[in-house]
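Human: Note token order:
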Amino acid sequence: MAANFLSRRTVFGVVVGLCLALVLIRNMLSKAINEIPAIRVAPQKVEVQRKQLPAGGNMIENFILKTWDINVFKNFDSSHTTRKNVFASGPSSMGITSHAKTIVQLISPRGHIQVGDIIKYRIQARDSEGRDRIIGGDFWYATLNSTNPLASTAGYVIDYNNGTYEVTLLAAWAGQAEFRLILVHPSEAVNHLRNVVRNSEHRSFWTGYFNKNGKKSESSACFLRSGGPWTEMCEYPAHQALGKTIFLCQKPKRFSCNDFNSYKTDWDKCNARADELTEGKEYLFKSPYFMQPVQIKKDGTLKIEAGFLPPLEDLPRCLPDQEIPAVQGYWLNGTWHSMLCRMPDFPMDVLRKCLHGKTLLLHGDSTTRQWFEEFHKVLPAGERIEKTTNKPGELKPTQSLIVSTNLTIYFYFHPDRYGYVTYASKGMEYEVDVLDKLTTLDCRRYIIVLSPWAHFTLWTRDGFIERMALVRNAVLRLRKRCPDIIIVIKGPHPRHFANYFIRVNFSDFLAKENGYILRDAFEGTGAFYLPVWDLNLSHHSRNQLHMPKEVIAQELKMFLGYICDNLTY
């Protein structure tokens, strides 16, 4: 009896003790929660604050945190990314986006369309079985085109990340217009380019040539690497310009590393690496998944009636770090009408005064060299020009003097380039080298144009970001010496793809990503980012790396409109 009583008392005590412990724990948790600051979730669209990057060299690691992703977050609109939940009765399937099955529908305006209207189309991506895609990420080209008048404009594509997309275009001319839509890459190809191809080292290969005292040259394999270890390599670092990325060559047998004097792209190795990185995924970069036009069965051809467009002179003045509008401009009878910002078409006497005594410094690739070669054609006819040119393979700066305006133009081709000829390794100057040698005496005289993009789709994303971060530092150093110097960053444009390897190594998707990196890299430096993607994409000729002279002339007119509207002379 006593034992039972003690047992009951013991159980009762344990229960009471547990209850007291639970109450104590609850009070402690409540107190801790009350001490945590409240987190307020705003219902509006997500805004990501871009980090202000310091001028010093320690900022590079922060900048390498995928700055291009900022654009993804900033443009993300969650209000369209969810569908009403519909639960299938059984397993379902989803294939790759099919250009033949994708549906395009005109949203607005319905019926009457006139100049000045905003035109919107909805894209519903479908696979080859006609099933709706429920994820986004496809890469599209959208344009509105006319042959009478000869006119065109590029569309702005919004990805709602659920298989639907919206295209915004401007009705900029009266007459017939045809909406054209091209599936450049399905999302599976985009993901492979972004996550596998772009992130992979060892995609750049050259043959290096060593020579001394007229002896027969010796060749060896050269490449870029951003990390070790390695053995028996000739090292050619340029830390001020490339950071951790090092140009390496296998040590030759008969010469020293100091005898390195020229190099040539080893396309066989570059292409073999592209094959290796796309093994098992080759189909993504061929028909029917690459550059396929979408058939628009209804409302693909539009009739635009006369209307009204506000004068382009009423646009706001062009400023660094400005927002890029959805519609950047339109072609009409051979002239590009920019809607980016106010870019006056100055008369020749104003251009002469604006450019008199200036030195224009161009640093970039062969698309920038087109500016150098065509610049005199946007000035009055009959201008006398004195030029210095390079021997084949030289990368030293070339010079042009337009005598009547006393305008000097220098063009620097960036080092570590790709091509089909042998290039001298001497006399190469990186962007950082050129900017750092400018002194305070050059402040009012110099105009700078930087355009590194076309060759850098073969670089890793982090390698390119680090290189641009170092150029950014050089720009900020120059700003301290020359606060008002004009610096323009020319963006990339789409190109033609003659073969499989160009599609992988020089993908338009990677080129456009380089444009995002360029824009973010120079934000806050006072440099003006000049986008030329839509201008080139919507031109009536086929897209190619070196666009027709008509296109180059219109790019230069935009450039001159900006600099002469901002120079005090």
User: Anything to note?
Assistant: The CA atoms of residues 279 and 288 lie 18 Å apart.
